[in-house]
Amino acid sequence: MKRKIITLMFVFVAGLLQAQTSFKKDSTLIKSIYNTALLNGKSYDWLAHLSNEIGGRLSGSLNAEKAVVYTQEELEILGLDKVWLQPVMVPKWTRGQKEYAFIETGPGQTSTTDICALGGSIATPPSGIKAQVIEVTSLDQLATLGKEKIEGKIVFYNRPMQADLINTFAAYGGCVDQRYAGAMEAVKYGAVAVVVRSMNLRADDLPHTGAMSYGDTPADQRIPACAISTNGADYLSSALKILPSLYFYFKQNCRTFDDVLSHNVIGEITGSQFPDRYMVVGGHLDSWDLGDGSHDDGAGVVQSMEVLRLFKEIGYKPKHSIRVVLFMNEENGLRGGKKYAEEARLKKETHVFALESDAGGFTPRGFSFDLDEENFKQVESWKPLFKPYLIHYFERGGSGADIGPLKEEGMVLAGLRPDSQRYFDHHHAANDTFDAVNKRELELGGAAMASLIYLFDTHGTTSEMTVIKK
């Protein structure tokens, strides 16, 4: 009995010492990652080129292709084991000349207002559209009003983001259906166009674009759709209360072309122990065209590239094959993410972990995870390693749109979660520009991502370790 107790004590002490040794090793490596990112980072320089030298990178555009070439060249300079382009067909939509709109409260009494076409919308007639306005706050309200009150009018969707939600992405999710499905629903009741309040918590004059859909609406029945700034929406709503019979006029010149060839950009460090098991880090290379796409998602692109550069810089040799994937066409089709997942399944590749950065380049707060309970327990055990860097948010939930199609049983998906309070001030708007990104915040995000990938690479996912042990 005494010998058994001594044996158990020995096993306990040995386990404790092993855990302490592992923690110290992990802590030292993570510190090296952060030091290198903050003292010798590259992400901000890469973003400066993407934003200032190339600019907005709408799918199918010349700028998008310039970004493909640039990031491929930069990944090759890093000396990765593999760098290649993955062909993908993407939609091509152009905005055309700047949009114009005004509110008419009487003959010759007009006030201009700021709008932009929604991505995928058709143009107005060459002379524009002028009609009376019916204001609604939900898609369901259309049925309540009926065709009698809507036909021949412009539907004005004016449900704001819910300001009392601390999670601004939840606030965004609570009203984005107006933008995406507003036109396809309004046309059923005879509307001639739709105007949608911008998805923005701030009161300003910047309209925010974004993807919309016509669903299965025949091409000859589609109606133009635009976004109006939050200040413009408030003014229009106030004016309608005083004068319900006012007119709204707008003109936009957008156009949709046939799909064109583009590419995902992929770079890889081949794993030293598990070369056929893949971990992915990525962001989307395309952006909307109003700004230069610095937060959405230039930041995610350069942070993902930085992860592999950091590993090379500090001499870390990963056990798994680590891939950076710069996805094309997240904004208006998700073609890049779907294509990567499709090719991975055709090649029977085993992906065990994927991390996406697509929430801006603000101060990182933590990560959200799509994973099972056992893997989440492991993630929670790493909290003390992140505490010195003020990373405290570890929650189960979503990950990222581009890596979502990769999801399979036992796989772990994660999304970087920066502070989101200012994100929607810039999201899809003309002020999503390089000057809105803070160098240190950007670098902290890249370091946090590299640290999480290091931990999963070193310790594995729980389901993966079960397979390996068998």
Your description of this structure?
The protein has 14 helices and 16 strands. The protein is α/β, with parallel strands linked by helices. The strands form 2 sheets. Strands 1-10-12-11-13-16-14-15 form an 8-stranded mixed β-sheet, with helices on both faces. α1 crosses α8 (294-314) and α2 (43-54) runs antiparallel to α8. The longest helix is centred in the first third of the chain and has 38 residues, at 2-39. The chain is elongated. 48% of the residues are buried. The model is unreliable at 11-17 (pLDDT under 50).
Instruction: Identify the CATH class of the largest domain.
Output: Alpha Beta
Globally, the shape reads elongated
Q: How far apart lie the N and C ends?
A: 32 Å
Poorly predicted regions: 11-17
**Whole-number total of structural domains:** 2
